Amino acid sequence: MTESRPLLLVDAASLYFRAYYGVPESAARAPDGSPVNAVKGFLDMLATLIRTRRPGRVACALDLSWRPAWRVALIDSYKRHRLAPDGGEEVPAGLVPQVPLLLEVLAALGIVTIGAPDYEADDVIGTLATREPGPTEIATGDRDLFQLVNDATPVRVLYCGKGVAKLEVCDEAAVATRYQVPARHYADFAALRGDPSDGLPGVAGIGEKTAAGLVTRFGGLDDIVAALDKPDAPFAAGVRAKLSAATDYLAAAGPVVRVATTVDLPVLDLTLPSAPADADHLIDLAQRWNLASPVRRVVDAAAG
């Protein structure tokens, strides 16, 4: 039964950006000279994940909206630093044409890709991790997904910050050791501390240590804000004033930092295919784009 083997949820954009920057364009080109480094690197990472984690089901989550309007309406600085002049996401020119090629290769392999309008890949992953039977493993370089870690299901994050070859398998204990907060409150901790990579300012004067202490003592953002109305609540000197000055931000930040888990997604068969869905097209793509080796590694890993 595939359900006894993990469901592997791949944060596709996280991995293909890492692949693009991790493999030089000069090291992976098609016969016509076009760079395919992101596609090659992504496929090699996927092959390694399938070979080493042995999933029975796989889905690659997509950013159909990398900066959803509803999150920007709450915090206008959200990911603003990554805006291109045309209003889209700032993406290296060499990567842009590789994304549709990667999706075409994944379709020929028979590996499900899934996204949702107005939602980020994180939200797709959160919904699938909540909806689908476990165990579940999430391959990402995005720390925001630590909030989904749950030993009961279980849901674990395969953190790729140092590459897939040096995966950090994160359960609740690993997240607590790293950040001194329970995984379920990682989003609250991030909102308090701030996260420059997402354009979240945090609460002025509240650093990582103080944020962790607040979460440990009081719980989530709602609990912390509620405690501000209690004169005897044990806030450290000066912290109450800093939080009181940021209550509007804290009210807005909660929905922004929390991964959605109820996105309306179609029910799909996520079973990892033991053979390509369209072998002829896959062979054509592999030959046309000089991807024979990485494609073969994925096919062999899935068949193993």
Commentary on this structure:
One of its GO terms (molecular function) is exonuclease activity. Residues 5-273 form the 5'-3' exonuclease domain. It comes from Luedemannella flava. Pfam families: 5_3_exonuc, 5_3_exonuc_N. 5'-3' exonuclease acting preferentially on double-stranded DNA. With 304 residues, this protein is α/β, with parallel strands linked by helices. The chain is built from 13 helices and six strands. The chain has a six-stranded mixed beta sheet with strand order 3-2-1-4-5-6, with helices on both faces. Strand 5 and strand 6 form a beta hairpin. Helix 2 packs parallel to helix 13 (292-303). The two termini are 15 Å apart. The model has no long low-confidence stretch (mean pLDDT 95).
Determine the N-to-C terminus distance.
15 Å
Total E-strand runs: 6
CA-based shape: elongated
Continuous helix count: 13
Task: Note the run of SSEs as H and E.
Answer: EHHEHHEHEEEHHHHHHHH
Q: Find the structural class using helix and strand composition.
A: alpha/beta
Strand-residue proportion? 5-15%
Unreliable spans are none
What order do the strands of the largest sheet run in, or round the barrel if closed? 3-2-1-4-5-6
* Average pLDDT score: 95
Q: Percent helix among the residues? A: 40-55%
